Amino acid sequence: xxxxxxxxxxxxxxxxxxxxxxxxxxxxxxxxxxxxxxxxxxxxxxxxxxxxxxxxxxxxxxxxxxxxxxxxxxxxxxxxxxxxxxxxxxxxxxxxxxxxxxxxxxxxxxxxxxxxxxxxxxxxxxxxxxxxxxxxxxxxxxxxxxxxxxxxxxxxxxxxxxxxxxxxxxxxxxxxxxxxxxxxxxxxxxxxxxxxxxxxxxxxxxxxxxxxxxxxxxxxxxx
Length: 223
Prior knowledge:
This protein is α/β, with parallel strands linked by helices. Helices cover about 30% and strands about 25% of the residues.
C-alpha cells in the first residue's frame, strides 16, 4: 500500500470564511479538504500533521530591515502537541493580522520541548513551551509574535535588524501578552496586588508605598 503524503496551504492564502484544513493527498495527486469547523476537537490540525523528525529550517527574510514573521498557533486539547504555521510579513502591515506579541523570560537553555512549525520540528526552551501551551485556545487560532521563534536567532544579521524594530513590533500589536510562568505559591498574591494597582490608577489616587506593601507584609508575617 502506497504511503500517503501531506500538503499544506497557508491560511492567509485561502478565501475568507473558507479556512480549510488539508487532509491526505491521494496517489492521483488530488487533494481533499475538510472545513476546520467540521473537525472534532481532537481531530483538528494537531492530529493530522504528519509525525516527522525533520527539523524546522528558517527561510531568509527577503528584507530583514522591513520584513518580519508571525506564527499562527492552532487550537488543540490541553495535552495536544503545539502546532503552528509561520508566515513572512511586512512589519508595517503587521497590524492587519491583529497579532499579539508575547513578552516572557527565556529561562534556562535546558530542558527543551518540541513544537511543530509548518510541519517541521523545532525545539524551544521549556518556559516558552509552557507559555504557548497556556495561551493556546481550544476552539480557534491565535496569531502571535514571539521573538525566540519569529527571529532566526542563528542569523546575526537578521537578529540585529529585528531587535532594532522590536519596539515597533510590540507597539503595533493588538495586545501584548506577559507570561510570568506557571502558577506558584505567590501567584494569587501577585495578581491581587496588580488588580489593586489597577483599581487605584483608575481612581486617580496617589497610593503611598506603605499602603501598597501592606498585603505583602501581612502575607510574610502570616506565612
